[in-house]
Write a structure and sequence with these properties.
single chain; 270 residues; alpha+beta; 2,3-Dihydroxybiphenyl 1,2-Dioxygenase, domain 1; 9-stranded mixed beta sheet; 19% helix; globular
C-alpha cells in the first residue's frame, strides 16, 4: 500500500497571527484566504487554518502532538532554523537516525516539527525490517552552516507525518494498522510509528502525556491521508462519512481522519 499525508487542518483563535507565523517562520505561502479560513502550502495545500470560538484544548484531550513539515534538503532545514532563531523560539533539535529535526510550537500552542530525511539507505533497521529511531542531540552549528539563505520553504516541502496523542496504543494500532492498513515501522516506550510502504512513519501515536478524553477544543480538526487504496480502506470500516473528496472516519480517540485517492489537481482547502 502506498500513500502519504495530505493536508492538516487546525482550529485557531487568532487567524491573522497564526497565518503570519506559518508564513514568516515555517515559510509557507498563503494560497487562498476566505473570511475565517486560510489555506497555506508549498506547491499545493498543506495546512488549513480555521478561525474557531471553541475553548482551548484541555489538558486531558487527545489530538495533535505535532505536525511535521518535511523539507527536501539539509540547506532548507538550515534555512528553517535561521527563520526560527530570528523570529521565534526553538524548543528542541534531535537526530533520529532517519532524520534531523527541529521542534517548536505555533502561537496557538500546536506542536510543529520541521525535518529533513537522511537517505533511506542510511536508515538503521532491525532484523524484521523495521526502522530503528532514536532521539539524540542535534548539533546546530553545522546546520546553520548548511543554510542557503532562503526565506521561504522550497518546492518539495510536504507534511511528512503527523504525530498524535492518543489514550491507548493497542486501540491506535488496531485502527491505523488493521483498519487503515498502515505498517508498524517502529515502537518505543509509549509510542508507535506507522507508515504506508517502507517510510519511517506517516503517523506517530503516543501516550506520554496521559490524554484520555476526546478532542473538543481548538487544535487539530482533521488529518488527511492520500492513498490509491482508499476504496479498500473504506470496505474495511463500518462507519464512514462520504465527502466530495473521499471520506472521513473517526479514530478510537475521536480524531477525524480524512482519506482520499490522489487527485490530478490539488484539492481545495475545504
Amino acid at each position: 500500500m502506498t500513500g502519504h499525508v495530505g493536508r492538516v487542518a487546525l482550529r485557531v483563535t487568532d487567524l491573522d497571527r497564526t497565518v503570519a507565523f506559518y508564513e514568516d517562520v515555517i515559510g509557507l505561502e498563503t494560497l487562498s484566504r476566505d473570511g475565517d479560513r486560510a489555506v497555506l502550502g508549498v506547491d499545493e495545500p498543506l495546512l488549513i487554518l480555521q478561525r474557531s470560538d471553541r475553548p482551548a484544548r484541555g489538558p486531558d484531550e487527545t489530538g495533535l502532538f505535532h505536525t511535521a513539515f518535511r523539507v527536501p534538503s539539509r540547506a532548507a532545514l538550515g534555512d528553517a532554523l535561521a527563520r526560527i532563531e530570528a523570529a521565534w523560539r526553538l524548543d528542541g533539535a534531535s537526530d533520529h537516525h532517519v532524520s534531523e529535526a527541529l521542534y517548536l510550537r505555533d502561537p496557538e500552542d500546536n506542536g510543529i516539527e520541521v525535518y529533513c530525511d537522511r537517505p533511506q539507505t542510511e536508515w538503521p533497521t532491525t532484523d524484521d525490517g523495521r526502522v530503528e529511531m532514536d532521539t539524540l542531540p542535534l548539533a546546530l552549528d553545522p546546520l546553520r552552516d548548511a543554510a542557503a539563505g532562503d526565506d521561504r520553504a522550497p518546492s518539495g516541502t510536504t507534511v511528512g507525518h503527523v504525530h498524535l496523542e492518543v489514550s491507548d496504543l493497542d486501540a491506535a494500532r488496531s485502527f491505523y494498522a488493521d483498519d487503515l492498513g498502515l505498517n508498524v515501522r517502529a515502537s518505543m516506550s509509549g509510542a508507535l510509528f506507522l507508515a504506508f510502504g517502507d517510510y519511517h512513519h506517516h503517523v506517530g501515536a503516543n501516550v506520554w502525556n496521559d490524554r484520555s478524553t476526546p478532542p473538543d477544543g481548538r487544535g487539530l480538526a482533521w488529518v488527511e491521508l492520500v492513498t490509491n487504496d482508499a476504496d479498500a480502506i473504506r470496505s474495511r470500516i463500518d462507519t464512514v462519512t462520504a465527502r466530495e473528496e473521499g471520506f472521513e472516519v473517526v479514530d478510537p480517540d475521536g480524531i477525524t481522519i480524512r482519506v482520499r485517492r490522489p487527485a490530478s489537481h490539488p484539492p481545495s482547502g475545504r
